Amino acid sequence: MYRCEAFANVPKSRRRAALSLQIPAWSPFERTEHYCVWSGDTAMIWLWDADVVRPQGETLGLTDLQAARLRIVPETVLLQRKPDGVHLQGCRHGFELQHWRGNVLCDSFWLPEPPDLRQWDRFLHRLGSDVPDQAMVPDAAEAVMGAEPWAAPLTPKEWLEANERMLTASCLLALAVFAVWQEARLWRIHRSAGNAAAEFAAMEAELGPLLAARTELLRLRRLDRRLADILAEPSQARLMTLVDQAIPSENARFQQWSYRQRELAVIVQDPSLDPIASIKALEAVPMFDQVRAKSARGADSIEIMLRVQP
Fold first, then answer.
1. Is pTM, for the whole model, over 0.90?
2. Which residues make Cβ contacts (< 8 Å) with residue 274, sequence separation at least 6?
């Protein structure tokens, strides 16, 4: 059976569901199978009895599983589409009267023998006003089968359902490849870490004596610096000698001596001591700096203060 139905009033996303609801109302068969090709909002539908039309596995030499996987399509969808008008299409078995308009098969009727004029007139009468003014019986076109049946663009859901097994296999393959790559990557990292640890242990054993010697050298260098700082401090006796030699008076006497953190303060008693001359004389000593003098308690006494350079 063939039907051509328009679903212009049905939303595009619900047209296929609406078609599924209409098929039981159209079909007289207990179990119906169908094939549908969409052209815009128009559905071209073929219906047949699933209990009668089934893959003949025994005839084709196929197993039951192989026969169950065969796809059944009407012969018409394997033939070439026609231009607008009424056509007589020759089939492998029998003939088919077709009415085409706008690349849509508006009506179809199959006959086991070539139609006579009465059958032809009946088909034209069934078309009514859709028949062209000059409708003539053409010669039957030969049945030239195409490589693929007519098909309508698949919705995303139908495409997923049609390619579900392939997509699942592809995902599993991708996951397996990723798992193998990740495992190989982890193995390489583990191996590199083991090699690095072994190299580090070998270098540590080789450089151990050198590192110990370097540590000892640094310790001795710090000790040497501390000793140099201690030795750089002048002794009290030397400071007294330098101050005594620098003061320009043989009768000068030290009354008080104070030295702390390179700051020296000394009180000198001498009635004839010239403070200015003493400052100049002490400044001439390379180790003395910032020399200054002031009067001290007691007769004929001055306090000299200076800074000792290292």
1. no
2. 248, 249
